[in-house]
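Section 3.1: Structural characterization of target chains.
Under the original work plan, the team committed to producing a structural model for every single-chain target entering the pipeline before any wet-lab resources were allocated. The record below documents one such target. The sequence was received from the expression subgroup and is listed exactly as submitted; it comprises 96 residues.
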Amino acid sequence: MKVTKEDLENVAVLSRLSIPESEQAQYIGQLENFLNYVENLKQVDTTDVKPTTYALPLENVFREDEVKESLPREKALQNAPLQEDGYFKVPKVLEG
C-alpha cells in the first residue's frame, strides 16, 4: 500500500507526534511495510479458527482466601513513627 506524506502527517496529528522533515521518509517506509504485512495477513484462511480475546487460556493465579490469625497490634505498630491509643497516628489532611 502506498503511503503519502499527507497520510503520515495525518497519522502524526492524530497521534500528537512531531516528526522532523528529515525522518519522514523513514517513517513512510515503515508505515508502508506495516500496512503491506497486514494485507498479507488478510490472505490467511481463518475459516476454522474460533475468535479469541486472548492467545492463551486465562487462569486465576490467586490463592484461596483463608482466615488466618492477624498480626498482633504491638508488632504492627512497632515501627510506626507516630501512634496513639494503639492506632497509627497520621497528619491531619482535612481542615476541620
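The longest strand covers residues 83-84.
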